[in-house]
Amino acid sequence: MRLSARLGCWIACLLLPAAATAGASVVERLRLGLTAEHTRLVFDLSEPLPFHRLQQPEGQTLLLDLAAERLDFDPATINWAGTPVSALRLQPAEPGEPRRLRLSLRQAVSARAFVLGPDAHGGDRLVLDIKRAEPASRSPAVPRLRAVREGWHEGFSRLTFEFDDEVAYEVSQAEGGGPSLAIAFADAMLEPAELASLRGGHSAVAGARLQGDGAVEMVLAEPRRVRDYALAANATRGYRVVLDFYPPALQESAEQPARVSAPLPAAEPDLARAGPEAPQRRQLRRSGNGPRRGAGGMPRRAADSPQASRVPWEFSGTWEQEWAVARDGNQKFEALLDSRVDLALGDLGSLSALGRLRLDAVGDLGPDSQRPWNYSAVNGPWYNDRHAGFDLREFYLDTRLGNTYLRLGKQQVVWGQADGIKVLDVVNPQSFREYILDDFDDSRIPLWMANLEIPLGDAAGLQLLWIPDTTYHEFAEPGTPFELSSPLLVPVAPPGLRLRFDEPDIPGRLFADSDAGLRLRGHLGGWDLGLHYLYSYGDFPVLFQSLARDEAGIYGLVEAEYRRNHLAGVTASNVFGPVALRTELAWNSDTWVVGNNLAEGGVTDSREFSGVVGLDWQWRSDRQLSAQWFHRRLSDHRDSMYRRPSEDFLSLLWLENFANNSWEWRALGLYSVDDEDAMLQLRLRYWWRSDLEVWVGADWFDGEPRGLFGQFDRRDRLVLGLRWGF
């Protein structure tokens, strides 16, 4: 069946229950949304109202006339705390007159009423907006989404949206806990990349997309009852909107009064204390400015009381231990101790520092160099050898200048979402110490930069980057298991010829050698769109080759240099029922390709087009399949180049959660269509407790030495690991 036909059937199934109950004009429920200045009452209707009228007589009273047969909710159950409304009651209807709701007010207000038709947020609705005549003073800045976090408790799962300022919101769901859910944030700045974790990353959500009106539309893996409430900001956390998802078996216990905002609890529930039977997944994909594994991705210490929540600093961390065994014996027995400190600075913002200590009892992965040559003068590890290393992983200040958001310091920025192979995720260089087997969050090398984000209306934003840090890719050292050897990447000397490598000079001028980038993102016709540009030095050095002579005879000389490149790219994504479509396209002005023509220095420059198209399909409730097609094409290909004019790669990612989300299975396969080599990465994880996970897995390579994966054909390994958060 075609996708459009399946989508039509799915939509029809959603509409059948509504059609079955049509025929009576009923106000089914009342939902309430709150901000410091604005109160919204949403009356959910069974069908369009033929008539409504809002009156505001003298005094603190509002009268709302409704041409409805009845109300299916009790006005006395509504909690009006924090609103200008003190009470609502239904007046007896006079013969021939419509039903009238009387709202008693605490102060003078202005009000308006309007009707909304069926859309992604719900069915027919009558909306009443009430605004204080003299609102409390507050910043006109647009609230910005900081993070999306998830947690698992016994009997339900939790999704938390954290903002840097108070935000009004409205949750819409089909009656009875249907398979779709929408949450609309009023006048808030949302990034599509912040919602990447909902692309099958949450057990209750199969897919999500950000609509142009600021609403997040989510497709649920199975019908669930949702409880929503807000949490006030404190010294270490921003304003939070929380969604609790209850499985069908617990729907009755999850039912709450029909309202959007519950009274604000004193502190956020402590996810780290959910108990040994409440596994929590930490692998949230975020835009590159979020917490990393071992830092903000693990549970933090929650406040024990409202007084404790005012402490202006917060500490968290992880200990990760992984043992890898290759064909020829132990490859690593590595401990990573990550720690993070967040310091609240009041109106100045917040300061975050992330440190990492590495200890490896085996040391086969290296490096031997105390300071690898790829690092700039202001970057790199503080101590480093094959058995130990210590580094200030990230260090940045978050602040706001009016409506503009600034992150200043050592950080990561993520532009792409492709699995396995990067297309647009090239702002930060990468460590290839374990090739591409490590998580991208760990293999990216943070850079010192200024990261400015400017909201452009309600549905667009501009990101500007200035990167004076001239740090580039770090490669596995010669003699280590993942040393690059494919002729597609590095020169290969013929038998009997010595080869000498001259390390490149790192560009060091503050302004002339800085990188700069911009990203424009927005929403159009249901699509999340992005335009990207990056002017930078290529992270792969250009390897010029020549023949030279010394006392011992002729040898091959490889001289490395860094050259400039212009990158322009486009991203687009959309959600169609249980299927998410995403694509990344990139054009590079200067891609240097290794070849065999020494007259040209053994390398040749070419323009390159690359792209990826991905489909993410939520299969059943806790299974996801993601398929990708990568394509690369050299516009100025020459016969002397070792690379082909065009190359294609395929990938398949299989994710599955089972046993009440205590277990996770992840399998990622990458295949080169042209070289017929492949890589397979398998992981089986178990959450022993909410803050402790263990895993077992395997990394497998196959193919000829020429290929990007086949060069490691004999580097297969088994892994066993654990991670503990504190």
Estimate what percentage of residues fall within beta strands. over 45%
CATH topology of the largest domain: Porin
Give the strand tally: 39
Radius of gyration: 28 Å
Percent helix, as a range, is under 10%
Structure annotation, total helices: 3
Shape: elongated
Total separate domains: 3
The CATH superfamily name of the largest domain is Porin
Features:
Immunoglobulin-like; DUF1302; mainly beta; AMIN domain-containing protein; signal; Porin; 18-stranded antiparallel beta barrel; 3 domains; 726 residues; elongated; disordered N terminus
Summarize the structure.
With 726 residues, the protein is mainly beta.
Q: Any overview of this molecule?
A:
- The protein has 726 residues and is mostly beta strands.
- The chain has three domains: 25-132, Immunoglobulin-like (Sandwich); 145-273, Immunoglobulin-like (Sandwich); 313-725, Porin (Beta Barrel).
- Helices cover 4% and strands 49% of the residues.
- It is built from three helices and 39 strands.
- The chain has an 18-stranded antiparallel β-barrel. A five-stranded mixed β-sheet has the order 5-1-2-9-8, with no helix packed on it. Strands 3-4-7-6 form a four-stranded antiparallel β-sheet, with no helix packed on it.
- A hairpin with a 3-residue loop joins strand 1 (26-34) and strand 2 (38-45).
- It is elongated and about 110 Å long.
- It starts with a helix and ends with a strand.
- The relative contact order is 0.09.
